[in-house]
Specification:
Elements: H1 2-7, H2 9-32, E1 57-61, E2 64-68, H3 102-105, H4 127-141, E3 146-148, H5 155-165, E4 180-181, E5 186-188, H6 196-214, H7 221-233, E6 237-238, H8 240-243, H9 265-272, E7 274-275, H10 277-290, E8 295-300, E9 311-318, E10 321-325, E11 338-340, H11 342-347, E12 356-357, E13 360-361, H12 365-368
Parallel strand pairs: 6-7
Antiparallel strand pairs: 1-2, 3-5, 4-5, 8-9, 9-10, 10-11, 12-13
Helix pairs in contact: 4-5, 9-10
Length: 378
């Protein structure tokens, strides 16, 4: 044996080395094909792939399919309330909706009207507020249920902008105080329509109604704004019952939810002319934006301090100058309060030092928005 080993020493060592390499390769292949087990509560193991590597799953809501990416955290997370369409029971598993797939984008719904924010409002808002607002509008138009936001965004402000500049958003939604998910940074939209076709029908009916109020919109801008004003105020019916309903404060979580009796006030004012001063002021501002006229609304407490005399009206920019318009005080299509000035407002008990835009008290309001041209009052 010794003689054999000495004679074939080199060959024996080479064979042994080859055997070691083969065994190592086999063990390596088995390790690569090992299936990672899940933990007993169904939570993915700690060796999760990143969000970019996670395989996309598909979730169908109503008759619309949404592409979702669900990169779960390594640790167990609390169950969160999910948003469903049409009042159906929420699914047991959390589903986050991402951007539509390419197939969906070919069937995108295109609104006829513009849901823009006036340039003048930017001094009270940030670009991120506008960006999230636009994403919410787009998601609503495409019947999507979840809109992500970042830690730097302010979703409450975006909801406020919807209240001002996208009244149709509230026609087919039923938001609650949990619509903002602060854990996952998502805004959840719950629809009242049964499916996407019904949803789009609601939007089209709203836009057709607005187009009827707008008319042909040709000619001098100021004249167009005045004609729209007359056409709109002719439809108005003051809703005393709505005025007497208790509503939450603007800074309460339930203000932009269905619990607010004025949840759909601007939409209703445009559709059938019913509402109160805040309804009419926002509705006319929305119509003005369709005429490419910058418009906002002004809220002010009455000098008497009486709550039932607090008032809201429209503010518009025509030919480079600001004017007020008060559709609430008009009767049967008149235009008595079209183009009123700050001086006229103060005669009525609404002092400029108390004017608020977007519920923001601004001591420099009179300087920033001088309303002193009385050409329409002559």
């Amino acid at each position: 044996m010794r003689i054999f080993f000495e004679r074939y020493k080199i060959q024996t060592i080479a064979a042994a080395a080859a055997l070691v390499l083969v065994i190592g390769a086999v063990l390596s292949l088995r390790q690569c094909h090992r299936v990672e087990p899940t933990v007993s509560d169904g939570t993915p193991p700690t060796t999760l792939s990143t969000a970019a590597q996670t395989t996309d799953a598909t979730a169908t809501t109503g008759d619309t399919t949404h592409k979702t990416t669900d990169a779960a955290p390594a640790t167990t997370f609390p169950t969160r309330k999910t948003t469903t369409v049409g009042g159906a029971e929420p699914p047991k598993a959390s589903v986050r909706t991402a951007a539509p797939t390419t197939a969906q984008q070919t069937q995108k719904f295109s609104p006829t009207l513009e849901y823009t924010v006036p340039q003048a409002a930017l001094q009270y808002l940030g670009l991120r507020d506008i960006s999230l607002y636009r994403r919410l509008v787009d998601a609503y138009m495409q019947y999507e249920t979840v809109v992500p936001f970042t830690a730097d965004d302010q979703p409450q402000t975006a909801l406020e902008l919807l209240y001002w500049y996208c009244p149709v958003f509230f026609a087919d939604t039923a938001l609650d105080e949990n619509c903002i998910d602060w854990v996952y940074n998502e805004v959840h939209i719950r629809y009242t329509s049964k499916n996407r076709a019904e949803h789009e029908k609601i939007i089209k009916a709203f836009e057709n109604r607005c187009l009827a109020l707008l008319g042909n919109r040709t000619g001098e801008t100021a004249q167009v704004a005045r004609e729209v004003y007359r056409r709109f105020t002719k439809t108005l019916k003051y809703d005393t019952a709505l005025l007497n309903k208790t509503m939450p404060r603007w800074d309460e979580p339930t203000y932009y939810t269905e619990k607010n009796p004025r949840y759909r006030e601007t939409y209703t004012a445009l559709m059938n002319g019913s509402g109160v001063c805040s309804s009419f002021a926002k509705a006319y501002a929305f119509l003005l934006l369709q005429c490419r006229v910058e418009a906002m609304t002004v809220y002010c407490d009455h000098v008497s301090g009486l709550k039932d005399k607090a008032h809201e009206w429209t503010m518009m920019k025509l030919d480079g100058k600001w004017y007020f318009a008060d559709p609430t005080w008009e009767r049967n299509g008149s235009d008595t309060y079209f183009g009123v000035t700050t001086a006229e407002r103060e005669k009525n008990g609404y002092l400029s030092r108390n004017f608020c835009l977007f519920f923001v008290y601004d001591t420099q309001f009179s300087e920033k928005f001088a309303v002193n041209d009385n050409r329409f009052m002559k």
